[in-house]
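Input record (Table S2, row 134):
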Amino acid sequence: MIGRLNHVAIAVKDLDAAVATYRDVLGAKVSPALDQPEHGVTVVFIELPNTKIELLHPLGEGSPIAKFLERNADGGIHHVCYEVDDILAARDKLKATGARVLGTGEPKIGAHGKPVLFLHPKDFMGTLVELEQS
Ligand code: CO
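Output record (cobalt (II) ion complex):
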């Protein structure tokens, strides 16, 4: 069911420092920062030849990654995103196996303008999983 690894998201406390590390130390191509108020994050995309890294920084009150950063003072891997051909079919198949879909269970438009869903980390070896329609 799952296809390509679309991205790995890393929550960071200091976005400028994280950008500098990826750009200047690791020599990666880094996008400008993009505010996504509907998701409570500011995102920077790092384009790698085979996938992307997303740096996530909290935006506004009640950001979904604020708590994660309280627990992970240095930042850390927040989720992995896999592509699926049909997000509704994937959701229904997963729910039938007992996997928990977060939120309302209805896809939201994600950082790349495509429908996304999140799956409960307890059902996937402690890792928050995002599915994105490819
Ligand atoms: Co993501």
